[in-house]
Specification:
The chain is mainly α. The protein folds into two domains: about 100 residues, no CATH class; about 80 residues, Serine Threonine Protein Phosphatase 5, Tetratricopeptide repeat (Alpha Horseshoe), CATH 1.25.40. The protein contains ten helices and no strands. Helix 7 runs antiparallel to helix 8. The longest helix is centred in the middle third of the chain and has 14 residues. The two termini are about 25 Å apart.
Length: about 210
């Protein structure tokens, strides 16, 4: 199973700007047809050739790293990718980061708010645990810890053998000082080969880790 260290470490931050939406607006119908049937499911091997074409133009490294867009705003580029591949994990992570950087739920050029794009991703593929994990990360950084916990637990239930999800759920429980749960998820992640030592180091520092 592929491990995603680039989106693995949760930065438990909150910012002064309130990024919590009182009610989600209508987030649009989902269609991955696009020009020439260009879209699809980010996790399906049979859609990889279409994904490659989209990413070559609208999800290059400068866009993922939020440096500059190729044909428009960063919000517009990421929006385009997510309209074609609603559960594109890395694009969702990048849009979430852009939301915090621009201090707005709807970054410049994006068709919908970040919460709408997460809503669309979950409607598109309800059993995608990584989408739930990324949404939980966004909610946690927004200061919505109860909603974040719900999403992380859903992610772990959907994909119990995914090392990155287990690692991030462990970080969440570490943040909540639930060391028993944090250690249990950490053990699962490391048993499956997760490479980053941060969670283990936190548990060691707290005196809650035994090999």
């Amino acid at each position: 199973m592929k491990i995603l260290p680039s989106i693995a470490i949760l930065l438990f931050l909150t910012i002064s700007t309130d990024l919590r939406a009182a009610a989600a607006p209508h987030c649009g119908e989902i269609s991955t047809g696009g020009p020439g049937g260009a879209g699809g499911d980010y996790t399906k091997a049979e859609d990889r050739y279409k994904l490659k074409i989209v990413e070559e133009h609208h999800f290059t490294s400068n866009i993922e790293n939020l440096a500059y867009g190729n044909s428009g705003t960063l919000g517009g580029e990421l929006s385009y990718v997510l309209l074609l591949f609603p559960n594109h994990h890395r694009a969702l992570a990048a849009l979430s980061k852009l939301t915090f950087r621009e201090k707005t739920l709807k970054p410049q050029g994006a068709r919908y708010s970040v919460e709408c794009f997460f809503d669309r991703a979950m409607r598109f593929k309800s059993n995608d645990g990584v989408v739930r994990m990324l949404y939980g990360d966004f909610l946690l950084k927004s200061g919505q810890i109860d909603k974040a916990t719900e999403q992380f637990e859903t992610a772990a239930n959907l994909e119990p053998d995914h090392p990155t999800i287990n690692y991030n759920v462990g970080l969440l429980y570490m943040k909540k000082k639930d060391y028993s749960q944090a250690k249990a998820y950490a053990k699962k992640a490391y048993d499956m080969g997760f490479p980053l030592p941060g969670l283990k180091n936190q548990l060691i520092q707290a005196g809650k880790w035994e090999d």
